[in-house]
């Protein structure tokens, strides 16, 4: 790549050029983002994962731009139309849009009106008119009347000339650049319902007669309008005022005094805008706003997924998991500390069978037999009834009883992964196993499910699926490597996301482990078939081996730094294990004494941090959560109730909260805090435990309005005018709109 590209990326990200060039070299050498950010800090200048990923993505964009530039230059060269001036402009183009504008006049076209006019010999007349000099228009046009060429009148000749001029204007780089800016800065989305579809399109009611600036339209509304249009419920326009657009083109194109030629050019401008320029710009701007909205939606999804994956794990405990139900009963499984299935059964404590005595005896026996330490109950159908039943059994107080979000469990139970693991078990039993394992280790279990099926996204089916997958894969990889993976117990799916591995090596590790027994050291991992030095370098620091002979094998210290740690211990007259267990010994290590050409203070600080808590899980400690007793259905809700809840999903317009009534409620953006906020993530995170106030209950439509304000029914908090800009006051005014009306729109769209 050209050094100018590295300079450009450095300026965009606010980093040094050397940081960019060195990071790109590592990426091109096959290093992963987690590995670079964790183990190559001296090389990158301590860039974090977000910065490294941004460099990777921007480099790919620029390489795609260069590839397109080369193809365009080659195409124009082959047409023998490449001038030094044009080549200079093409090489200077910094965006794909400008590049395509420059190429437009030379791009192979289908047969157009201008093409037909040229075939009729009208281009000289177009050139004459486009000079905008005073001419005898009728006289000049009459020279091109030719029956053989199917030009039957002067008006036909003039029309053909205008068709050619319209194409020239459409291909004018300056016109397209300014028009693109006008569409984005001054354009508006205008949405109307298709006549006759009002009832069928009820969920898009807010967009039946809607308009808002393109520049400020939030991502969720852009995607909602596009979906309504795609489903043939809405008509969507996205243009600026026509007079403003025509004035802009005239300012660029018109050069002469008012005369007959200028009038013809004005007619060509109007035709160009309506027939060529407007459709082209509208398509571009729609793609631009769609991409922008998709990026925002994908960002929201990725952040929600990160929070869900990094939820606090219960850890290695004996767990009973119950997938609740009514008619079909509750599938009940018991899992060992490593997640292994010990037993499965079905109990019927709920309607219609109501075999409570039998179900109670079964649960008590299983708790005693398997020394159950926690009971996980899926939050689906019959969950609250089942929870109440289990809590009524008088089980030992040390047995944790908690609800688990089972979103996506059915996807797992029918997947190839589940069939491979439990080929002889019923789908519902597999689902119960997944619920139990989610309690023990959410990350390890959720990686087995397609992230799009977990239910923490916003319009995930409307966005670019490739971009979504790449972002979610990045997120999963970041979480897996951030936590670390116990190589002797990890599933193939979990190992797949370890830096440097992938599906094939993950399968090979599991196969080797099954055949040869547990790995006793990180060094032994090198024996896995097809796992070469490069893959080992990338993966080793993220793989853990509990109770290994070398205590560093259970830590995040990379094997390439073992010798350094051993030297630290030796210099203190101690062993590595002593260094890991004694804070007093670690305090005696003078880090600057161990700085070298390849190891700097950032790595040394990381090593010392890891020695103080080797292999410790970075996730939060698990806390038991319970819903409000006696509030099991929507009919139990009353306006004004204060209830505990768990955030299940975050969107740009608010947060959905599970309050234990089988229907999540919406805390609109305007009710997340006492102050104005522009982004829900400022206040809440997925899996966060919150207290909410019930604001509205609509049982027929299954809608619940909630608030997290301290006084949701009181006066709005006072804010000095000087504290807020006009735009923020406008946003606040919009956000404080009628909650019930917004619920109807937002929950329908989201669901």
From TrEMBL:
GO molecular function per UniProt: mRNA binding; structural constituent of ribosome
Region (Disordered): 708-738
Keyword Transport in annotation: no
Domain S1 motif: 640-709
Any GO BP annotation: translation
SMART domains: S1, YqgFc
Name of protein: RNA-binding transcriptional accessory protein
Organism: Arthrospiribacter ruber
Lineage: Bacteria, Pseudomonadati, Bacteroidota, Cytophagia, Cytophagales
